[in-house]
Design a protein that fits this description.
This protein is of the alpha/beta class. Strand 11, helix 7 and strand 12 form a beta-alpha-beta unit. The protein folds into 2 domains: about 110 residues, no CATH class; about 220 residues, Rossmann fold (3-Layer(aba) Sandwich), CATH 3.40.50.150. The longest helix has 22 residues. This is Methyltransferase domain-containing protein.
């Protein structure tokens, strides 16, 4: 290739170099194909500890991104043309060059496997999925939703619909997160981290948002399982920590706190942590509600609460309602919606809280008056008091 076009290639390469240095957590591989006449010569590089394991002509070297691109541009002088592809999670950048022209293009990085039609499984909902079969095949297989041959497993259809609906319910809130920065998301009581992996895929590969995820769970077993899946998927923008929620202290700004089916007061721990770190967004799907059931005592309701099942249902509503009140008093815009059908589980509410203002002392006063009227001390209030003293 002539020197003029080699110079153009180096200019494009500079953009790739900066891209890798700025955030290499989504980098997948770099491939180059040189041609001379009818002959092709191929090289490939994969990620290795912030560098690239690059193989060309049977020789493998561990190089920096700058060294790889410098080598490619130098070697290109010996050939008629080149095609370089720089693959990331969600996109592929292609640079082509010969003695006539140099071009660069970007396109979505679709799954190499064909997308099976949802019609193959009649019980899938007739909806426009955000986590699409085909593009998300690697993810869906890793978390056990899809079989190796690309079919949604019959006993996982409900789970697939649930995780996709979860993303749909918070999609608007995700758009409210800060722009032009790396978003840090904390999953409290992450368990097997299905939703964490799904959100990682959606933010990184669909919405093209830079993000880091921290999964927190007291069980070392599920934390180790999550680490294995993250390694399998090459999701390097994740870390998993075995620790109690109330003992965790973040070292960087947390933009979003999420909690899915954390039992009883573990949900309150997550909400308290989100408030304490001034998280931009808090999303919680509470699980069992036991705490207020044994506490609340409201005399005007005594002829209703003598029926145990009604007392329990009122306790559920009070628990989540008072969580919403506390969040509002801390400057959050709160909505409480159905996450899934109550036919699947009665614990089906989602609390969405977006930070929009300063604290509201008047609302906090109303919250405390209600606590006195009901003779309750909610765990969320207790956890916040403890954190204020720290």
């Amino acid at each position: 290739m002539n020197k003029q076009n080699i110079s153009k290639i180096k200019f494009f390469f500079l953009g790739l170099e900066n891209r890798f240095i700025d955030d290499n957590s989504t980098f997948k591989d770099i491939k180059v194909v040189y041609t001379t006449g009818l002959k092709e010569f191929k090289g490939v590089g994969t990620y290795f500890e912030d560098k690239i394991n690059f193989n060309f002509n049977g020789i493998t070297s561990v190089l920096t991104i700058k060294e790889v691109l410098s080598k490619v541009s130098d070697d290109a002088q010996q050939y008629d043309s080149l095609i370089l592809t720089y693959s990331e999670r969600g996109s592929i950048i292609t640079i082509t060059g010969d003695n006539k022209n140099v071009k660069m293009s970007t396109k979505d990085n679709k799954s190499e496997q064909s997308a099976d039609s949802h019609e193959n499984t009649s019980t899938l909902l007739n909806r426009n999925y955000l986590i699409k079969v085909g593009k998300a095949n690697n993810l869906l297989k890793a978390i056990g939703i899809m079989s190796k041959d690309g079919k949604i497993l019959n006993d996982k259809i409900r789970k697939y619909n649930q995780i996709d609906h979860y993303v749909e319910l918070i999609d608007k809130e995700l758009d409210s997160l800060p722009k032009d920065t790396t978003i840090n998301i904390l999953d409290c009581g992450c368990g097997k981290s299905y939703l964490t992996f799904v959100l990682n895929y959606y933010l990184t590969e669909v919405k093209k948002i830079k993000c880091n995820f921290i999964g927190l769970d007291i069980s070392e077993g599920v934390i180790n399982s999550s680490k294995v899946i993250a390694e399998e998927l090459a999701y390097r923008n994740m870390e998993f920590i075995a620790k109690d929620i109330k003992d965790y202290k973040p070292t960087e700004k947390i933009n979003m706190v999420m909690s899915l089916h954390a039992c009883d007061t573990a949900t309150d721990m997550a909400l308290a942590l989100g408030i304490k770190v001034n998280s931009d967004l808090i999303i919680a799907v509470p699980c069992c509600h036991k705490e207020l059931l044994s506490q609340y005592n409201y005399d005007p309701f005594k002829d209703i609460t003598k029926y145990g099942i009604l007392k329990a249902r009122i306790a559920d509503a009070l628990t989540d309602g008072m969580r919403g009140m506390m969040l509002e008093s801390k400057g959050y815009d709160v909505s409480i919606v159905e996450y899934i059908s109550p036919l699947e589980t009665p614990k089906n509410l989602m609390i969405r809280a977006q930070k929009t203002s300063k604290e509201r002392p008047t609302l906090l006063k109303e919250y405390k008056i209600l606590c006195e009227s009901l003779h309750v001390t909610p765990a969320l209030s207790t956890f916040l008091d403890e954190r204020w003293k720290s």
